[in-house]
C-alpha cells in the first residue's frame, strides 16, 4: 500500500507452480533507488556503475527507480488528486513489486536527500519485511552518516538493512570522464558482499512470508 491505499492482502511470495511454496531459485526483484534529483547530480555515475555490477548477478532482476523522474509533493495526503496519483504510479508499483532494495544515496549536510525521505514517507507496506542495502557517496564522509540515519528510518518501516555497504569518499575523483571507476577492485568486491547479504535476506524473507505472512 501507499499512503492512500489500504492494504487488503498479505505480503506473500508467489507460490511455485505446484503450489508447494516459494520458488527458492527464482531471482529476487531488486529495486535500485537513485535518490539524488539535484540538478547537475553525480548520482547517475554511481548508478551506472552499480547497475553494471548487479546485472552480472543471476540471483537478481534489477529495476531502477530514479527520483528525478517522479515529482512527489512534500504535502502528504490520504486522498491525493489525480496529478499526485499519476506521480505515485511511477514509483509505488515498483516498490510494491520489489523483493529487495538498494538505495544509492549521497550525503547532504550529514544526512540523505529530502526526495528520498519523501519517497519513504509516501509508502509503508511496500518496505515491510524486505532487505535494504546501501551504496553511498559524498565528500569526506563517503555518505556514511546518511546511511546510519537511513538505518533508523528503515527500521521504522519494518525493513531489514544489511550490514555491509559500498561507500565512495570524494566520489568524483574515483571515476574518469566516461564514468568508469579508475580502480574498481575494492568497490566491486564491496558490492558483491552487500549483494550476497541482500540475497540471503531476500530469499530468507521470501520463504518466511510464504508460510507466515508478515504481521507487522
Ligand atoms: C547541499 C549539499 C550538502 C552536502 N553536504 C555534504 C556533507 O555533509 N558531507 C559530505 O561528505 N558531502 C556533502 N556534500 C557533497 C555531496 O555529497 C556530493 O557533492 C555528492 O556528489 C552529491 O550527490 P549528487 O551530485 O548525486 O546530488 C553536500 C553536497 C550538497 C549539494
From TrEMBL:
Signal peptide, first to last residue: none
UniProt region (Disordered), positions on chain: 1-24
PANTHER family the UniProt entry points to: CHROMATE REDUCTASE (PTHR30543), NAD(P)H-DEPENDENT FMN REDUCTASE LOT6 (PTHR30543:SF21)
Pfam families, per database record: FMN_red
Residues of the NADPH-dependent FMN reductase-like domain: 29-171
UniProt entry keywords in alphabetical sequence: Oxidoreductase
EC number: 1.-.-.-
UniProt entry tagged with the keyword Oxidoreductase: yes
Source superkingdom: Bacteria
The name this protein goes by in its record: NADPH-dependent FMN reductase
Classification via InterPro entries: Flavoprotein-like_sf, FMN_Rdtase-like_dom, NAD(P)H-dep_reductase
Composition-biased stretches (Low complexity): 1-23
Record-level Gene Ontology MF annotations: oxidoreductase activity
Organism per entry: Streptomyces maoxianensis
Amino acid at each position: 500500500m501507499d499512503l492512500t491505499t489500504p492494504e487488503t492482502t498479505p505480503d506473500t511470495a508467489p507460490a511455485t507452480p505446484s503450489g508447494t511454496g516459494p520458488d527458492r531459485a527464482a531471482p529476487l526483484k531488486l529495486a535500485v533507488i537513485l535518490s539524488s534529483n539535484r540538478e547537475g547530480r553525480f548520482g547517475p555515475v554511481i548508478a551506472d556503475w552499480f547497475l553494471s555490477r548487479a546485472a552480472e548477478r543471476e540471483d537478481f532482476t534489477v529495476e531502477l527507480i530514479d527520483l528525478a523522474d517522479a515529482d512527489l509533493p512534500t504535502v502528504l495526503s490520504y486522498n491525493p488528486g489525480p496529478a499526485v496519483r499519476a506521480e505515485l504510479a511511477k514509483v509505488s508499483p515498483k516498490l510494491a513489486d520489489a523483493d529487495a532494495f538498494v538505495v544509492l544515496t549521497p550525503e547532504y549536510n550529514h544526512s540523505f536527500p529530502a526526495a528520498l525521505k519523501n519517497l519513504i514517507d509516501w509508502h509503508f507496506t511496500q518496505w515491510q519485511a524486505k532487505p535494504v542495502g546501501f551504496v553511498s557517496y559524498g565528500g569526506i564522509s563517503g555518505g556514511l552518516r546518511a546511511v546510519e540515519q537511513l538505518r533508523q528510518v528503515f527500521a521504522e518501516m519494518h525493513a531489514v538493512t544489511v550490514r555491509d555497504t559500498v561507500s565512495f569518499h570524494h566520489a568524483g575523483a574515483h571515476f574518469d570522464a566516461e564514468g568508469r571507476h579508475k580502480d574498481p577492485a575494492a568497490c566491486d568486491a564491496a558490492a558483491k558482499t552487500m549483494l550476497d547479504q541482500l540475497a540471503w535476506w531476500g530469499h530468507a524473507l521470501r520463504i518466511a512470508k510464504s508460510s507466515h505472512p508478515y504481521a507487522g
